[in-house]
Amino acid sequence: MPKILSIVDTAYRATLEEQDDTALWFTAACKTAGGNLTVLLTGNAVNYAVKYQNPRSLSFGKVEITHPEKPQDGLKRLIDKGVNVFMIRDDLEQRGIHPDSCIPGIENISRSHLSKFVSQYDLIWHW
Predict the structure, then answer these.
(1) FRET label pair with 53: which of 15, 27, 44, 76, CA 20 to 30 Å apart?
(2) Cβ–Cβ contacts within 10 Å for residue 122, how many?
(3) CATH number for position 84
């Protein structure tokens, strides 16, 4: 079974249309099917790790999205399934996010260690 690293860099992709992040949903589906996956949050996607996010409902005319995605919940579900989740500490710092404000169970790595980290995997998915 190949080791797969799912790098999530683009935040909130399709979260209005689908009410979940496509990359996190696909990773969870592959894990359920027996895949050996790890998630790495980079760029704006490190915001997914912030606990206590509460997005409001959104409406466009008469169309209303009453259950917007809570990406931290998707990450919690992945962690509960046994998926290791990492994030780039440098990206947190650039966005003024303190690691203590993030959900537990996510490990931080430095961007300077990224090439060594990535080299452990057989396949890389970059979202």
Answers:
(1) 27
(2) 10
(3) 3.40.1260.10
Per-residue pLDDT of 78-87, as tens digits, reads: 999 999 999 9
Beta carbons of 37 and 83 less than 8 angstroms apart: yes
Q: For residue 24, what are the domain limits? A: 3-126
pLDDT at 60 over 80: no
Contact between 39 and 61 (Cβ < 8 Å): no
The token pair at 105 is 């169970």
- Please report the beta strands in the chain, taking only residues with DSSP state E, as ranges in sequence order: 3-8, 36-41, 58-60, 63-65, 84-88, 106-109, 123-126
Question: Is 64 exposed, middle or buried, given 0-12, 13-18 or 19+ CB atoms closer than 10 A?
Answer: exposed
CA–CA dist 82, 126 (Å, integer): 20
Q: Structure tokens of 1?
A: 């079974």
Count of C-beta atoms within a 10 Å radius of residue 106: 21
| CB within 8 Å of 3: residues ≥ 6 apart | 36, 38, 120, 121, 122, 123
